[in-house]
Amino acid sequence: MMRHIVLLQWTETATDQQKREAETAFHNLPARIPEILDFFGGSDRGLTGGAHDFAAVFTFADVEGWRAYQDHEAHKALVADHLKPILAGRAVIQFDD
Amino acid sequence: MMRHIVLLQWTETATDQQKREAETAFHNLPARIPEILDFFGGSDRGLTGGAHDFAAVFTFADVEGWRAYQDHEAHKALVADHLKPILAGRAVIQFDD
């Protein structure tokens, strides 16, 4: 299996609605992209200073599955429509598990 | 459930041995800290420019479990002995799932 984790920081001006729509769009991806074997994610609880705002944790069978996700229209639409407008920072990693 | 995710970047001078020892120390935590209900983690595969080097994904029953982890001697020793010497960056989040 391969894991893909992205932690996101929203801009100061991002509205609650924009954040909710971005987070919902993430949760809708598995239904659109069959290579996503598992997904979980959520918004920061505010327990740690300087934490990121949202986490998305994906599981793929292998790197080919991850590449199919990267190239998929639904992923590209998520990035263009929901992330770019309100993204301030992003931490990412892919690893075998 | 509550998830705690930390993505770490190692310093340029970190040796492979130091990295391996830090990553092994993470994998040894669940045996020492019963509040950790699940753990997975791994080293970056080098697929994405600017990715973090290591990810640790913890699951706790609730915030009390997370606090017990934060205060536990084994966690404190991991930070002092294995992370501080080679840590260049850290992204963190806690969220309900």
Automatic annotation (TrEMBL), chains A, B:
**What are the Stress-response A/B barrel domain coordinates in residue numbering?**
2-95
InterPro entries in the record: Dabb, Dimeric_a/b-barrel
A Pfam cross-reference name: Dabb
Q: What is this protein called?
A: Stress-response A/B barrel domain-containing protein
The source organism is: Actinocorallia libanotica
Q: What is the lineage of its organism?
A: Bacteria, Bacillati, Actinomycetota, Actinomycetes, Streptosporangiales
